Amino acid sequence: MNRFPLVTIITPAYNRANLITETIESVLSQDYPNLEYIVLDDGSTDATLDIIKRYDGRLRWESHPNMGETLTVNKGFSLACGEIIGVVNSDDPLLPGAIRRAVETLLAKPSAVVAYPDWLLIDEFGKKLQVVRCRDFISRADMVRGHYCLPGPGAFFRRKVIERIGGRDPAFRYVGDFDFWLRAGLLGDFVRIPEVLATFRTHADSTSVLSPSEDMAMEHFHVIDNIFNDSILQNDLKKIEDESYLNAYHAVVCYSGSRNLKTKVKYIYRSINSCPRKFILKYQYRIIIYVCLLMGIPYNDIYYKCSNIINEMKDKLRTCFGRPVMLL
Description:
The chain is of the alpha/beta class. Helices cover about 45% and strands about 15% of the residues. It folds into two domains: about 5-205, Spore Coat Polysaccharide Biosynthesis Protein SpsA, Chain A (Alpha-Beta Complex), CATH 3.90.550.10; about 210-320, no CATH class.
């Protein structure tokens, strides 16, 4: 089975009775012959557990009192036997061929520790809203500098990642996956699979819609703060500290919710003041984002509905200044 190493997929589930069947079927129908599928019910109060039990014998399942997604995923890591592991959220079905392509990619590049594909943004009913083309991995420093989480839905990683860095940090309720990938970047390269192989669903009950708040926003700051407070910080990261904080504060502004304009203004100032020259040369297009946010437009609407307009502005700035610009 060297060509087909055991792959473990973990699905944490809480009150997803209306969506989990599609996700489970998307995993079980994959064209990969050596799969361990673990579905963990996190104390659901709806029919989620009853639906999971229907697949008894085709997957491994357990149920426990509600303890949150981070601890549930970490429990899955402790149960996983696979050489390659992935987390598939209960409302984000995989697309055909996702496991096979991830395994092929990791086997083809032994130095890689993570493989991640492009993905589809879908709505509650599975309607395609947007194709998201991920960036290619350059370095861990690039993720820290840009405050950008490269792996999204459909990402797979080698077992040694959890053996070396542990699971997700339970101190982070909202950005534990981002922190996990930043720490995984210490171990080796990430490889992008330039194919659409996964989905991310946005709907009224999704964390991405419900969670924007100052607590979530500040986690974006703390995950970067932890890196630069680390006693074993690498010198190459120290060089990008100012720009990293510029982008961390920008994330705080974007994810702080629609309330408290005074707080938004404070963190806009801190973002710009962290590295004024970089802001002028690379990030001045964000002025449009800040104006929209201060008008009360949710960041998700700006990102998903106005990204084409902002990308056009980025292209114009690139032409004017001869430098690449980034959209967070």
